[in-house]
Amino acid sequence: MGDETGARALGVPLAQAPARRSEDAYGQLTALLLIHEDQAAWDAFECMERAAWAASERRHRVAERLHLAAGAASRLGRADQARTLWREALEQDPRHATAAENLAVLERDAAPLTCPALFGWRQVLPIDWMRRLSEADAAHLESALGALTASDAYLETIYLAGDATVRALGAQLLTHRLTRESPVQPIPGGPPERRAAVILRDLARQPVGTSEERTELLRTLRESGLVDGDETVQYWDGKVLRSVQVLSTQIDRAPRPTELSRAQGEDASADALIAKLEQLVETDDDRRRLALAKARVALASPGRRIT
User: Fold this and answer.
1) What's the rounded Cα separation, in Å, for the pair 40 and 217?
2) Domain boundaries, the chain
3) CB–CB of 168/157 below 8 Å?
4) Is residue 192 exposed (0-12), middle (13-18) or buried (19+ Cβ within 10 Å)?
5) Number of Cα atoms under 13 Å in the Cβ half of residue 96
6) Whether the Cβ atoms of residue 96 and residue 67 lie closer than 8 Å to each other
7) Is 171 in a helix, a strand, or coil?
8) Cβ distance 98 to 117 under 8 Å?
């Protein structure tokens, strides 16, 4: 999980290969979207719509295919197509939370999403590694996080294309690597690997996730000594890109202070997060996500015990 340049070289043959079954179609769309071959993903989707197997596809598979196609359309600036496809995805599977989230943002902003949430953790992270992470107690989280040998560039890619759980994990892994070497060495003769600190700065200026998430990225860099108190950085405030200063626990939009600040202490934020997640537990998948969120909170709050 590191050679994105090599992966892009496979884009053309991947796009041209006809999907012979639903599983192949899903993998094809996922791979093309991860390497940002959006037009190729759209072309592949149109071919899938004419495939013989499409008529007997299960509803949840149809919903996922429509959701990914909507993501490709949105990235290509086709708001109307994206809106239609996300609505059709929800008709097939009303519980498709990511499609509903993207549709809500599109309709709120009346503009296509440049970075729609497309993937859950099952699509972009090793299941065995996620299992070990969810089972690790606070004392073993460090080694569990270090066991993932994905490149920093891959973590950036899944952050930009993932749902809230993927973004949380991607941010935590990149934060974990701020003081550590990347486990993946640059490809000989290829471009140098962008380091975690540079990536986190860039993510704070992207229209991805919530303002709280972007604030947290900059706060982490500030507390790690990677952003100076008088340094100006770029921050997407939800509407426009701004030049701001990070003053330890809050962001200042010079010359006047912002109201964006961290919520009343680490423990209060953690308790609120856990309480909210526990209300959402309905299935085994929900329980796994809750365990992962608890692990992240425990790692982010040294000395805190999460049960």
Assistant:
1) 32
2) 4-109, 121-266
3) no
4) exposed
5) 28
6) yes
7) helix
8) yes
Residue 210 phi, psi (nearest 5):
-105, 165
Any alpha helices (H) in 11-96, and if so which ranges?
11-16, 22-34, 38-49, 59-75, 79-92
CATH of the structural domain 4-109, one choice from 1.25.40.10, 2.10.109.10, 2.30.42.10, 1.10.10.10 = 1.25.40.10
Q: What type of residue sits at position 138?
A: A
| Sheet of 232-236, strands arranged across | 232-236, 241-247, 250-253, 256-261
Give the number of other CB atoms < 10 A from CB of residue 81: 17
Which pair of structure tokens corresponds to residue 46?
């149109």
pTM above 0.70, yes or no: yes
pLDDT tens sequence across 145-168: 888 888 899 999 999 999 999 999
Q: Encode pLDDT of 162-202 as tens digits.
A: 999 999 999 989 998 898 877 777 677 666 678 899 999 99
3-state SS, one letter per residue, for 201-257: HHHHCCCCCCHHHHHHHHHHHHHCCCCCCCCEEEEECCCCEEEEEEECCEEEECCEE
